[in-house]
Amino acid sequence: MEIKLLGGATKEELEKRIQIVAAAGKLSRFPGNVFEVLEATNDYESNLKMIKRIIKMGHKSIIEHDYLVFGLCDVTPIVEQTIIGTRLSSFTIKSRREVDFRTAGYYIPKFRNKNGEIHKDIDKLTEKYKEHMQYLFNCYGDIVDLEIPTEDARFVLPYCFKSNIIMGLDCRQLERMIISFTKGYLSKIQELKEFGERLTEIVYESVPYLIPNLEKTEENLETSFEYLEENYKRPEIEILKEPKLISYTPDCDDVIIRSYIMYHYQCSQDKADEILEDLEKKDKDAKNKIMQIILHKDERRELEQTSFTFQIPISLSILTHLTRHRMHSLLVPEFLPMWNFNNYVTPQKIKDNDKALEIYEKAIKENMKVYEEFKSEVYDEDLIYFYVGAQMLNVMTTMNSRNLQWISRMRCCNKAQWQIRQIAWGMVNEAKKVAPLLGKGLGPTCMTDKYCGEGKESCGLINKILENS
Fold it and tell me: What domains can be seen in the chain, in order of their start residue?
């Protein structure tokens, strides 16, 4: 693992960053405009002392103006999924759809026993682990060589493979991330703790005002699920067959249309209902026309007044396709306790190739077997690297209608990966049942707007739609 700060670390850059944060802290209580305050805030040591004093009081919004970008080299999807879960971080990740990962390499944990101490047979376990992981990578390569797309072959890759990420976040989020990885329950995972410690080293060099708070924060290894675990026996995990709508805003279409009228006229809800009733007397299609206007506005705040909650079955390979959409409240199960390895998916293109299917099924079964061998004597946190991309899990999320529309535009497209496309269409179909007018604006842009932004890489559906329109 290699973590580097990409810019902002030279003496001049550091002093400028500190000046901006200090000016933000000074602005609300000092005379003069923003540029005058910035010019007056020009002593590094004084600025640093002021920032520490302000954030000690709990006023941390000022450090959101200090934005840093990191290069993350040779980190696993365990790190990837965890940082993406930090909703206010930004990230660009090497694509497993487009890149052959057979030589990517893999992470090797320092195997611990059930007490969290280095295992007495660590050398033997490490050798067995390396042999097994190389086998899975070889299976991946063999499947790719059978002309199965890398986006499908990757389902057999173990979650120890190494990837590369560019991550950006403000220093308030950076502080939270470091505390979580070094002092929280996630610190039990060696790689996450190592990642957090490397970020801490960078903080000592380049973000000095965070040091006091990082040093005083105490360790807290509780998961918050202790009460459930102590009072109820864990049930078997049952993976859903398709996305399920759990709850939604009642009368969703009417709420959106009513909010449009209330917003424009600044009137009460009762008055908005009266106006809508009068409009429908003049035009039976009034509701549909208003909804179409809302669905195609630049600002669609009316759609944000309603929401949908879904439970969704998804594989680890595709989880980031959903997680990366930041403006929804996603609940992803923790990596521990370990999930049921029998819950896995097989891509259709692998099913259609007898040789690829044989390799794939054998690899999945062999992975289960080796995992069981390690399970009885290895620390649970070291077992998570036996997850493979095919592993299925149930997630839950709540999103407003505007975000649902955005996700459907991106993920219902024929260019989207097949599983996330199935999921997106499942969500759209569920929403259409309870909000048919909104539903007319859900789906790929070729269907909803007769427009495709893919250019030369278009699937061609837009041409057929335009021919028939």
Answer: 2-72+164-226 (3.30.1360), 250-304 (no CATH)
